[in-house]
Design goal:
Blueprint lengths: L4 E6 L3 H11 L6 E7 L3 H10 L5 E2 L2 H5 L6 E4 L5 H11 L3 E4 L7 H12 L6 E3 L7 H11 L6 E8 L6 H4 L21 H11 L4 E8 L8 E9 L5 E7 L7 E7 L2 E6 L3 E7 L3 H7 L2 H9 L7 E7 L6 H16 L10 H17 L3 E2 L4 H21 L1
Parallel strand pairs: 1-2, 1-4, 2-3, 4-5, 5-6, 7-10
Antiparallel strand pairs: 7-11, 8-9, 8-15, 9-10, 11-12, 12-13, 13-14
């Protein structure tokens, strides 16, 4: 049995560097750094200073075939995640793909299908928010029917403020060709995943998306989306990168109560004593007035508040440890790699609705999406030439 998983880190930027630090400091059980890969010569010098005993490669295929690693994590631009995941699995190397799983569902589907043919290997995605105790608790509450059937979801997550300088750091950032989108593919994939993980996938999407609204970029920096779950339930998802005062508030209304999540730190659960439909059918107007007038409502609903503390990095440790545990002893994955396609599908639908100016059904037509994305890339290239 393997004692420790030797992880190969592809891409030694902010994320890859952070993971290397966690592992080297012994914060991740059952894992060690097997090798590091980056195409930037400056990173080779940096790694030689920080991790002199760790092999360094400037070609990830060479690293995959080196015999120095058992698994990889892909901390690289989004378009490369599916390709690198497939190349690793081809060589019997376990794969932990960073979020998002890819830019468009067609390429993610190829990754998923190949991974399914190598079921003896571990294939996971870095959805670290699934290890957050708050969101695990929220999912349990919804799954157990604590507030009944969902009627409406409403998430405003605008705590992603990014100044222009952030976008000006490199030419590929916030471009259709380099990143494949803006806030939907870079900052908000965790919330998009959590939304569908907890509440289910919508059947239809209608969106109003602003491109380069408050920043000098080609991709989206403001998103407002209406979700239709197909059973009468609806939702609204709002995200942006220009709100310096940012809001993180997630409400889920059910027929037996409501759950409110504030700042990803506090859950408030209001449980109705009777389902709303029963109240509507049976309550006298005298009792109704108590609600309107702000009287004692303890006989209407109970209120519970749960507070959560967040330790920076702990959720990342948890994903890496869970990945290693699955490889070593088959511990179930918190975020199986095949789950990555759901968030990509939802982000693609939000983009496509805005590009076509109409409501779209899920699953969307992958060929139509790819054609529209390629148009955006071509327009982007043309504008650069003109400049």
């Amino acid at each position: 049995m393997m004692k420790k998983v030797r992880l190969g880190i592809i891409g030694f930027g902010a994320q890859g560097g952070t993971y290397a630090e966690f592992i080297s400091e012994g914060k991740v059980n059952n894992m060690e750094i097997g090798a590091i890969c980056d195409i930037d010569p400056a990173k080779k010098k940096l790694c030689a200073e920080k991790y002199p005993d760790v092999p360094f490669y400037d070609n990830y295929i060479d690293m995959l075939e080196s015999g120095h690693i058992d698994a990889v994590v892909t901390t690289v631009p989004h378009y490369l995640h599916p390709e690198m995941g497939i190349e690793a699995l081809k060589r019997d190397i376990h794969a932990l793909v960073e979020k998002p799983a890819g830019v468009y569902t067609k390429q993610v589907k190829e990754l998923n299908e190949f991974a399914a043919s190598k079921s003896e290997l571990t294939f996971a995605i870095f959805f670290n928010q699934r290890t957050n105790p708050l969101y695990q608790t929220l999912k349990e509450l919804i799954d157990k029917g604590e507030i009944g059937a969902i009627r409406r979801t409403n998430w405003i997550i605008t705590t992603w403020w990014r100044p222009q300088g952030y976008y000006d750091q490199s030419a590929w950032r916030a471009t259709w060709e380099g990143e494949g989108g803006g806030v939907l593919v870079n900052q908000a994939p965790h919330q998009i995943d959590l939304l569908q993980w907890i509440c289910g996938m919508p059947k239809k999407v209608y969106s109003n998306v602003k491109y380069g609204y408050q920043r000098n970029i080609a991709v989206e920096d403001e998103v407002t989306t209406l979700l239709d779950y197909g059973n009468g339930a609806t939702g609204v998802f709002i995200t942006a990168t220009h709100d310096v005062l940012g809001t993180d508030r997630f409400e889920i209304l059910g027929d037996k109560g409501k759950i409110i999540v504030e700042d990803s730190k506090k859950i408030t659960i209001k449980r109705l004593h009777k389902p709303e439909s029963e109240m509507s059918a049976s309550m006298s107007m005298q009792d109704v007035m108590k609600i309107f007038m702000g009287g004692d409502v303890s006989d209407i609903y109970t209120k519970e508040e749960l507070e959560f503390e967040s330790v920076w990095g702990a959720q990342h440790f948890a994903v890496l440890e869970n990945f290693a545990a699955n490889i070593i002893d088959g511990t179930p994955l918190i975020a199986p790699g095949s789950d990555g396609i759901h968030g990509v599908a939802l982000a693609n639908a939000i983009h496509l609705s805005s590009w076509l100016g109409k409501e779209v059904e899920l699953p969307i037509d992958e060929e139509v999406y790819l054609a529209e994305l390629n148009k955006k890339i071509a327009e982007e290239k043309s504008s650069l030439v003109q400049k």
